[in-house]
Amino acid sequence: MTTLKTEINFTLYHYWRSSCSWRVRWALNHKGIAYADRAINLLQNEQNSPDFLAKNPGGYVPAVEFDGEVFGESLAILEWIEETHPASPLLPKSPADRLRVRQMCHVIASGIQPIQNLAVMRRHSSDASEQAKWASHWIATGLEKFEALITPYADQFCFGGALSFADLCLVPQVHNAIRFNVSLLPYPVLARINAHCLTLPACIASAPQNQPGAS
Ligand SMILES: N[C@@H](CCC(=O)N[C@@H](CS)C(=O)NCC(=O)O)C(=O)O
Questions:
Q1: Where residue 6 falls among pLDDT bands split at 50, 70, 90?
Q2: Residue 7 has pLDDT above 80, yes or no
Q3: Which of 35, 109, 127, 175 has the fewest CB atoms within 10 Å, i.e. the most exposed one?
Q4: Residue with the nearest Cα to atom 2 of ligand 1?
């Protein structure tokens, strides 16, 4: 009997601790999309290896490969997943509500994560404690904005009672916040949503500690 893995023609390049990878893993798990795993070890700089750069010139994870093509950028991949697998939606119905969710996503994906990325922290300083100070400053500043933005709309999730892209961005970012010792006390709304999301099976299955290579 062939194993499931050999039948899959959809590959996810990712790193267990990458918050952007977690967004995509969570969407794939939520939609029940099977994928083959290719771990790219960021600490060993595999994202800049000639092999990986030939596939994804951006030199970042995540990336997905299907039908002989490779695509990067987690939010673009989320949009493709939603368009091709509309069941168990991750965006609300009305265009204005979708715009609001996408705004939430970008506060994290464009406003926080890039500033605390490995390459940026290394460029800022070679000193680990200075890197951590830098990361925690930008995460705290960004989460304050995110808390203010979601508060009028939040219920069980960032946008009402349904899981959306915004939650897929939030929870991995909160995971990083905790790694960098950012207190969640000033952000009770997002902290509550984060705690709830962490009980969801697709969130658990896609969490860093449950990925190959996690330590
Ligand atoms: N905008 C990209 C950002 C991807 C990104 O920054 N990935 C990080 C991990 S979360 C990475 O590969 N970092 C490698 C590095 O900094 O060299 C996305 O959303 O996919």
A1: very low
A2: no
A3: 127
A4: 73
